[in-house]
C-alpha cells in the first residue's frame, strides 16, 4: 500500500475527481435527479472526461484516451443540442402573440 501511495501524483486525484463526476452524473440520471436531456448531464460528462484526460497525460493509455475523446465529443454534441433546442424554444416563444418581442 505504501508503494502505491508513494507513486500518487497530482494527476491521480484529478482523474479520480473526473471519474466521480461522470459516475455521479450517471447515478443521478438513474435516480431521476438529473435530467439526461438537460444541460447538467452532458456538462458533467464533459468536465469529468476532461479531468480524466488530464490524468492520462501522466500515464497514457490509448484505449482510455479513445473513450474519453468520444465521451467529450458526445457531451459537446449534447450541449450543442441543448443550446439549439433552447434557441428554437426562445424563437417560438418570441413569435407567440402577446409575448415580448412578438410582432404587434
From TrEMBL:
Regions crossing the membrane: 6-27, 39-57, 63-83
Domain CBU-0592-like spans what residues? 12-84
Cleaved signal peptide residues: none
Which branch of life, at top level?
Bacteria
Extract the Pfam families matched here. Answer: CBU_0592
Q: What keywords is this UniProt entry annotated with?
A: Membrane, Transmembrane, Transmembrane helix
**Name the UniProt record assigns to this protein:** CBU-0592-like domain-containing protein
Give the species this sequence originates from: Neoroseomonas eburnea
